[in-house]
């Protein structure tokens, strides 16, 4: 094979690897041969010394994120392995029609474990590719990845590549910025026929929450003549969809002044300065308390709750669920009878069962009858590996509240 350091699995810990789960936890390791540093490539072997996988070493509870379970692939130069993965990811988006869509030019190009590249996210913004590494090992491969992506996306109109990994690479020391091509702080994109301005330096995640595209389209189809409250509204994706769908009035609430300022710009870009919309800088839970649900002029019959991840990991799961219960109960108390509530959790630590139980508890505490209209997953440019069900991180429900 080669001289890579080896992670020796403890007896009986091979099952998850045989199922091709891409995460290997430190508790499964009997001992380590060699002295791997954060981000180094390592081989995973069983107690008898048989090779099982190759991946990136991490000084975390997930001690290895697997790049390949194929022995022949593990012998390839890393550039060739990356090229195969990128080619597959691009082909997936071509087959699903994302390139060349006249109404949408923003989508996820590489979805980490879902595209067999754990630790790497790449989002396409109308010719600008935003790369984000979630591991040291993947960030160290950016020079090779940039060349591979330039080659793979040349025919699709790639203009520039932006590295937005400062907040996601363990250990820090990474600066956001353009690493190839034309440099621009902002870019106008199109989603479902709606124009939006993306700020790469100041935007959250990679600049926009591309995973909610299909759910925003659903809001557009349901918002006609509704009074809509978009909570944790960020730069207004759901608000713009509601306005396009013919909502009577839309209010966007976010604690970030910069987000609301960009939201207002996006509203004016699409619907003019006199659009029936207000942007409010406020804490959502506090703001929900001020709503008079009995006043038709102030109440809302469509509320959207798309909060940040309240539970970053299993250690703070219960505290996170408490936060979700608080905002959902308050929204159910305030929404008009017969209203629609669209509610989400993007916390990977929160299971579907946890999320639905939280919604049930919120409904009971609010004293409202609630029907589940539809489950709301992330969009199909965020594929989930059958070997990694945790990749289905976005949980959402559309509820009818009586």
Question: How is the topology of this model organized?
Answer:
Blueprint: E1 6-9, H1 15-18, E2 23-25, E3 29-33, E4 41-45, E5 51-57, E6 62-68, H2 71-74, H3 78-95, E7 106-111, E8 120-125, E9 128-133, H4 136-140, H5 142-153, E10 160-163, E11 177-181, E12 186-191, E13 194-199, H6 213-222, E14 227-231, H7 237-244, E15 249-254, H8 257-271, E16 277-281, H9 284-289, E17 302-305, H10 317-334, E18 339-345, H11 352-366, E19 370-375, E20 395-401
Parallel strand pairs: 1-4, 9-10, 14-15, 14-17, 15-16, 17-18
Antiparallel strand pairs: 1-3, 2-6, 4-5, 5-6, 7-8, 8-9, 10-11, 12-13, 18-20, 19-20
Helix pairs in contact: 3-5, 6-7, 7-8, 10-11
Helix content: 25-40%
Taken as a percent bin, the fraction of beta residues is 25-35%
What is the distance, rounded to the nearest whole angstrom, between the alpha carbons of the first and last residues?
64 Å
Number of helices: 11
Question: Spans of 5+ residues with little confidence (pLDDT < 50)?
Answer: none
Class computed from helices, strands and strand pairing: alpha/beta
Question: What's the rounded overall pLDDT mean?
Answer: 94
Instruction: Please give the radius of gyration in angstroms.
Output: 23 Å
Q: What is the β-strand count?
A: 20
Side by side, the strands of the main sheet go 16-15-14-17-18-20-19
Biggest sheet: strands, sense, closure? 7 strands, mixed
- How would the global form be characterised? globular
